[in-house]
Amino acid sequence: MSTDQDLVTDGLLTHPYAVYDRLRDTAPVHRVTGPDGSPAWLVTRYDDVREALANPLLSLDKRHALPGGYKGFALPPALDANLLNMDPPDHTRIRRLVGRAFTTRRVEQLRTPIRRTADHLLDALGAHGGTDLIAAYAAPLPITVICDLLGVPHEHRRDFRAWTDVLVAPDPARPQAAKEAVVAMLGFFTQLLADKRKEPADDLLSDLIAVRDESGSTGNDRAGTDRAGSDRLSEDELMSLAFLILFAGYENTVQLIGTAVLALLQHPDQLAALRADPTRLPAAVEEFVRYDGPALLAIRRFPLEDVTIGDVTVPAGETVLLSLAAANRDPRRFPDADRFDLGRDATGHLALGHGIHYCLGAPLARLETEIALAALLERLPDLKLDGDPGDLRWRPSLRARGLLALPVTY
Description:
Elements: E1 5-6, H1 16-26, E2 29-33, E3 39-43, H2 46-53, E4 58-59, H3 77-80, H4 90-99, H5 104-108, H6 111-125, E5 130-132, H7 133-138, H8 140-150, H9 157-168, H10 177-198, H11 204-213, H12 235-266, H13 268-276, H14 281-292, E6 302-303, E7 307-309, E8 312-314, E9 320-322, H15 324-328, H16 362-379, E10 384-385, E11 407-409
Parallel strand pairs: 1-2, 3-9
Antiparallel strand pairs: 2-3, 4-6, 5-11, 7-8, 10-11
Helix pairs in contact: 6-8, 6-16, 8-12, 9-10, 12-14, 12-16, 14-16
């Protein structure tokens, strides 16, 4: 084990894969200083990360964390009772309730409306010109899809994007901005649930409210102590679930679309091969997400007892950070792992997790990325990067890897 490393200042935000390459070889389970200055353990090798993702002794519940460790987002209880902070049996119960909406079969039914949204956004660009592809396409597509699925009114979607951006990459010059965004989100979801209760619609949020209220609850019990059975949600769980679906459904997909387009523009041979055979797109999505996925790190975990990872014993209650990005570039699992290759068998990547916490929205993220790229390939045949790739700006965040902007010409 080597000495502590500061994740924020030691290059991970600007050159993550170079840092991970070094750590996999020299300190695969490494003591680090987390994003908020607190200690954590960073795990970087594929086998160790995969095993840890499925280890029931590594809890997501912050109640098992030692004082002073990295815990991630500081959210009020009404937004914090979500799947990213839960272990079984609560995790199992809530995932079962919402999982039906995100099966591959159910998500496939969204193919036509997603393509309609993609075409509408591309129509607005015109036949030729230049644009920031993140602002004009990669961001509005997933926010439209997930808001339509949940039933979020159009007038609130721009606000939600702004709040999410603040939480994912807080501005050090505006320390109150994240707290203000959380307060605004809490008010937004409180009003949204009240409106849906008054006027239910054909959307996922109305369905979840019906599950919540089916036994005659007034919606006032916060912790769910009066749950009538295994298929109930507390009020905090309902609001937290709505928050998580919106937040993750937007954030992860916008980053994935952006980095996928960039990878293609930087590898014209791969772009040409995909244009020649668009049927390869579903398999190509697996390489996009392996090569440069939206999450550098999995959600933090806390050992329920002393746990050995690799050849290091991590004490109970300390924070463990599992690097999905480092695992996906591990040459022990993926030969020539730093090479972008759409002909590669990328199955087995960990970009969307592994085990019981595997990404609930993975089928939707895959489909949106596939359709977004298919529409671009068909509609913008001369798409090119506008400017020097070295000038591209990335989000200063360990929570979500993504571009702030992607200037292109077409």
